[in-house]
Amino acid sequence: MFIMTYNPFGYEGVVIRVEADIRRGIPGIDISGLAAGAVREARERVRAAFRNSGFKFPNDRVLINLAPAGVRKDGATLDLAIALAVMAAAGEAPPVIDTMVLGELELSGRVRPVYGTLAAAAAGREAGIKHFIVPSANTDEAAILDGCNVAGVDSLEDAVSALRCLREHGRLPGPERGPEPNDVTYGAEAGEAEFAVKGQKRYKRALEIAAAGGHNLLVFGPPGSGKTMLARCMPLLMPPLTQEEAITVTRLHSLAGLSVKGLLVKPPFRSPHHSASAEGILGGGRTVRPGEISLAHFGVLFLDEAPEFKVNVLQSLREPLEDRRITISRAEGSVHLPADFQLVMAANPCPCGRLGMKSRVYQADEGRYDTNAAGMGCYCSGDDIMRYWRKFGGALLDRIELRVPVNMPSISELSGGVEETVEVLAARIRLAADMEAERFAGTTIRRNAGMDAASIDRYCSVGGKTLAAFTNAVEKLGISGRAYHGILRVARTIADLEGSASIGTEHILEAVMHRRQGEDPYDVFSV
């Protein structure tokens, strides 16, 4: 007899067939099929769960085979499937072949929740499985996909009753379910309904462009200027996920072991601490799980105090930014995880954060405070500043299409009102996103930031005065080929925000401005 279950491995995972055979011999359980520690330990959990649930464990030799045998199986997800396979082989449970079973067993026979339930349901549905028995705590997650007959169980006895119901009535007990939207942005501290920071018009404009086109952004300026607070409002500006995108994002969160109560319809916002390891950011581990870049799929990865991250962590972001996925190689093989994220980084202008700020010095002979020139308040040497910025590296900065310096807001800005509300900006961004969706319909491209060279030639063509202005800027700045394409992508987004079908001179010039800040004192890197 056999029962189907699931083993998480990368994004797709592996559907496992649990086969049970009872034969004469010394009583015991043998498990074959490359079972790791937690799976081998299931022998004792299953035996105790049988006894404490009122079932009689076979007084013979039991062989459990986990197919395919060449794939390493780990974790306690297989416990319930192993127990039901043994029951079916012993005649205590009906044999059912088109059912997937997930769950960890306690010694008492209770069923504990597991992670990756949505991924298991997706893989099972692709394999033609329609019925799913899962822990009660995972029922909502498993029922997100349409066409899945899901039963939540709390104990081994409940699982046996569900199998009997399926055998007699052709379906598992419980109501029909469908995807329930979850209006939560996982990983984001709540952004205010307004842009709480007054002033910073250039930064707000850059955030609008980034949210509309999916572009990467770097903002740098002194502490307290509103860099972090405004960045955390970005999920409020971004358009909601489509049904297919929401399922993918929810599946990744499920694989990471995060609590999922419904379909995640808002773009995720991840903000890891600067002490995070490369494995935590990229994904991996003994059992490969998604990292922060995959949890930010179709959303934002925000690196606050970005130069404080380890150099290897920052530099490891270059390939995923280009490929929109991460490939993790292990002895068992290579796995791919989606990683189509926007990178938003915030940094101080120098290690002490005071570069460019004005300092006040008391003049004793005159009995008053004197304001020194910009930069006099900085305590860092030139080497300190260069070492601080050198962590980014030219290759990573070349992938950042929007670069915004910010200063401390003036008194007049702080005393003024809010220029535009989040609702107004979000509505404008939604219109631009609709233009992008229509433009890239039927392709794998989602946003303007994802356009390849062929798409840029098709949708970002310029001529006349616009081409002359762009050519002049390229010659003066000496930009790279990637920067050339990046400026065109940003210009396309700016034109979309204005509802323009073609790219004008003003769109190109604004895109160039966001790429390089000219003589600004904070411009410590080149194009």
Q: Care to describe what's here?
A:
This protein has 527 residues and is of the alpha/beta class. It has 2 domains: 168 residues, Ribosomal Protein S5, domain 2, CATH 3.30.230.10; 315 residues, 3-Layer(aba) Sandwich (Rossmann fold). It has 22 helices and 22 strands. It has a 5-stranded parallel sheet with strand order 13-16-19-11-22. Helix 2 crosses helix 3, helix 20 packs parallel to helix 22 and helix 21 crosses helix 22. It is elongated, with a radius of gyration of 28 Å. It starts with a strand and ends in a 12-residue tail after the last helix. 46% of the residues are buried. The C terminus is likely disordered.
Read across the widest sheet, the strand sequence of neighbours is 13-16-19-11-22
Task: Please tell me how large the radius of gyration is.
Answer: 28 Å
Beta-strand portion reads 15-25%
- Counting helices, strands and paired strands, the structural category is alpha/beta
Kindly, what is the distance between the CA atoms of the first and last residues, rounded to a whole number of angstroms? Answer: 65 Å
| Low-confidence regions | 186-193, 518-527
* DSSP summary, beta strand count: 22
CATH class of the largest domain: Alpha Beta
Short description:
The protein is an alpha/beta fold and 527 residues long. 37% of the residues lie in helices and 18% in strands. Helix 7 (201-213) packs parallel to helix 18.
